[in-house]
Queue: 2 jobs
Job 1
Amino acid sequence: MITRFLIQGIGRLDLTFLGLLAALAVLVPLANLLLPENSVLHVPTSTMSLWGKYLCYALLAISLDLVWGYCGILSLGHGAFFALGGYAMGMYLMRQIGSRGVYGNPVLPDFMVFLNWHELPWYWYGFSSFPFAMLMVLVVPGLLAFVFGWFAFRSRVTGVYLSIITQALTYALLLAFFRNDMGFGGNNGLTDFKDILGFNVQAQATRAALFAMTCVMLIAGFLIARGIVDSKLGKVVIAIRDAESRTRFLGYRVDRFKLFVFTVSACMAGVAGALYVPQVGIINPSEFSPANSIETVIWVAVGGRGTLVGAALGAVVVNYAKTVFTSGFMAPYWLFALGALFVFVTLFMPKGILGTAQDWWGRRRKREPAASLAEPAPAE
Amino acid sequence: MIPAHATLTSSLLYLDGVSVSFDGFKAIRGLSLVIAPGEMRAIIGPNGAGKTTMMDIITGKTRPDEGTVMFGGSVDLTRLDEAAIANLGIGRKFQKPTVFDFHTIEDNILLALKSQRTVARTLFWKTAATDQKRIDDILGIIKLGDARSRLAGSLSHGQKQWLEIGMLLAQDPKLLLVDEPAAGMTDGETAETAVLLKEIARDHSVIVVEHDMGFIRELGVKVTVLHEGAVLAEGPLDQVSANERVVEVYLGR
């Protein structure tokens, strides 16, 4: 499926996007590690990690676009899958601390010693193994999405009702993870990480590798999503979005198709969370907060839903704006700006940045067919 | 009189004593209807006679409170859901033309094309040459071959109706349920639709629900008149339209 569409060639926009990511994956770590600090092109480690974070959000946005933009499932709980992937990675990182914790317990993480626990809860078993933890990064969000989707889609919960229960799902997890006796560090979450695969997570080279890995996973996630939406299954999924009962009367089991994309999407969100945690150095229950999931929806809407590239673009643009906004004197007004942006996009750019740009480009091309030949390809 | 079980086994579709009510309102009361293999039947009736509800029951959207609904003499349709019934070979055209607006005309047909409907099969689907030929044939029949790469949403109302009929053909069902195919069409389009349906009826069983008497006359098939959720009269159009009760129901007292 993926090979076929690679051979057939993907759109110019997709190629630009993939080329850009590939370039980032190579050049940013090199510019960080090899260039002297006084060089103009040197990328500081903090900037690299910040952009690594944006790219994790971009992967989360693509996963949401897959279910919302293509299948019409407005999930307001995708942050939950992101956070679960993050927790799975966090548990691995906690187990790597070993006896270097404040209490020096070789098995138990500090917060468990603090709570007077004497042995590791069963669900922490196996997380000292990296492959097992990575498997859980996929399995835990995927399984939750599968079980949740199984019930929701079979009973034909759709539209705003589905959105509300996804919101309730992430809120319930928020409350659960806040509790100390859940065994995930309660309010403080998991932090003070030391090593990942034997490398110091704080080290510059490790951070560079994590950044490159994020680019690679974003490329992989994008290709999987593109492969799905360009297949016949993708056409079925769009058909479900636009005329669900028609699709059903054609003989497609709508619930199974929804379940498939929802589960794939949750796994993808889990991977994004897993890459996010070592780069920001902490995972705590606030990642489950409903507002996070809603913000993800805004990124996708701003970038342009149903385009994949637009979702990633939206995530980066909005988060970059957030960084700029919240670091200056305008900090208190960030939420107003975000709200205004959402209203503006909904009213004036219903297809998002990318959709609007594409429309504009298409109109221009139609008007001046000769001129467009001479002009360079649309920059991203 | 033929015993019931003989009618059942020789029929394609067999409804007996079907009733359904919504919030106490009896939409269908004791409806019985038999469609023979290869038959084309027109169903008429005033608004609220239960025509659409009958289609909902046959296609699994609505479950009857009581009664028998059998397909091919042996399959109990009341136990199956929409997708299973569609895969058995019952296709449905809605009253309001329902096509996938954001897909091309060709993709609309592709989605309807008879094939395995599982997640895995659709994910790894490759359109074979025979499938492509079938798609081209259908596009020819519904006269949309030249428009194949246009989005279905850009079609006119009449063209959408035809596209939906084309999708039904692609499904290759044993039985087609067609709800008001001529609604909102010009006279020319209506006549062409009648020709199209007659062509389809040559190798499929078809049930047509229609208001337009001229259209039914053009089809020239057996007519069933529904009234208040039950069969009021059945027979050739001339005989039915001469029936006093039918006239009374249609024209009011």
Job 2
Amino acid sequence: MFEIRILRRYEITNKLKSSIYVASFITGILIFALIEVIYGANPYDVMSKLFVKPLTSYADLQITIRYAVPIGIMALGLTLTYKSGIYSIGSEGQMAVGAIFAAWTAYAFNYIEPPTSIVIALLAGALGGLLWALVPGILKGLLNVNEVLTTLMFNFIAYSLTDYLIYGPWRSPRAYGFPLTEPIPKSYVILPTDGIPVINISTFILSVFLMYAIIKKSVFGYQVRAYGSNPTAAKSAGISFLKVALLCLAISGAFAGLAGALQLTSVHNRLGPKSWSVTEGLGYTAIVSAWLARLEPWFVLPSAILLGALINGGLTIKAVLGQPEGVVNIMNGVILLSIIAADFFINYRFVIKVRE
Amino acid sequence: MIDTLLLGNFVFLTLKNAVPLILATTGEVIAERSGVINLGVEGSMILGSLVGVAVTLISGNFIIGFIAGGFAGLFLALLHGLVAVVLGANQIVSGIAITMAGLGLTSLLGRGYVGKSLYGLRPTPLYPYEIPAPDEVKPLITAIIKHDVIVYVSILIPIMVALLLFRTKLGISIRACGESPVIAESLGVNVTLIRFLSVSLGGFLYGLGGAYLSLGIVGTWVDNITAGIGWIAVGLVAFSMWMPIRVLPSSYLMAALISMSYILQGKIGVSSYFLSMIPYISTVVILTLINVERFRVKIGAPNALGKPYVREERLG
């Protein structure tokens, strides 16, 4: 007879810890690949399209970055909120509103020249995302209203708001009947320098430094971490929960709004309905990216690039096999499940004893 | 004067729209009573919705499709049970992941079913005949009587769950796991097993709710059919104060708000896109109100809600 016992680990080496994480991430990808294979894809094709092509070919690397940058910027905002024990899933809506604010700025101030115009549009986007996160933040801080649900409801409201604009007042008469807005003025479009999206990449890297400074070097970051590890102690130490909740959500909202403005000005250039939307569901992938990075700002850099590559590869497979957009969601879900399940193997170990 | 036809239409829609909410919210009450938050409701519902349509088309019987939808919801809940209950992972993140997976899976598998007609296969009214009643009240009575069997059965589900939770030994075990898993374990309750069972039963109900959404309400499969209903159901659990019987009034209230957003389209000078925000805004308002009134303190959430419990042993 076998007997399996679950024992808590009291010590774990960093090497073992990281191997467990990497193994769980790979497990997640393998499950996703398995789903694709069951669906009829060639396994060799799936693996090369997911891992090799998005990171090796020059053209594909650009597409990878196109996804990695917004995912990363939003994930940075989420690392802060998750560190405080607040589970915002509102990046998607905040990103959408960021794009709306940036678009409005571009239409209203079409006479401003770059680089001022770009800076204004990005700031407007950040402001939009911040405002969108404000209500859930205030409700969480003052009344402890469940932020998972409120931020998600605001995602749906943001979708409806976008729909209202693209089917209503902002609908372009020259879009051949499609519900799209006019393209934003040329002075607001971010173009890559020599084929490299310099502004996008540098915004991302600057955001990493900024978030690192907020979390690790500021008093506020310390307060956030205090709430994350022990809310009761943090409260009795006199740290205001309202301040932590409100600022965490506002900052993550601003990051998401910035990502939305960046995607609008550099990729999409107009607002559109679901399948052509600025957000493309990346607000949800950002959640995966934040957890994959173990809520550490530095690790968001590789995690966002990895997920960007996976989305790029997933979309290639999707195009080849004629699959719908939602495929990316399966990947998100499966990888997220695998990496949080890893915690179990870090905290516990199995001992198999043989009994007579 | 109230337009009786309009009122009848409104009541009819409300009774129908309440069914997925009642089923999903009751399911979540069971899971949360055992101490597990399952945010995979939306994922379970949407998979149930698709499987409901697919199996109805194959079997030619909506009851079989409906039940199959329940098992589809249960399947995803099992994943949550494995990751969040057995492995003790973060319940919130696990649920979010399951919802993502459910949304993706259905958009992949459901492509062949988009807009496919369920003609002749949809649930039919129990009493299909003309109702002899005076004209003034006829629309209202028709709106209440002319429903399929599931609408009436769904009213019994919360009552049955209330009996399960408060009148059976299993129910006491479920609630004990939600209040204090350590004490429950010391009294000989297998916490992991009970929580796993509760999550599975919850998942079955989400799946049923999702199946009714496609079979009974929309009448076909469309991508993203749930549009947040599952999340709203999670919100209604707190509004119902974790009491199965209270799920009925809170679901009917939310269903009335959802129906209102349809009925008012084109009747008042507000864009339909703003009307479609009503359910989501109402959910935020409701969640806020219950916290203002400090109901949470009086009839609180289960004590151990959201706290993983892994039974561990030391060797020697």
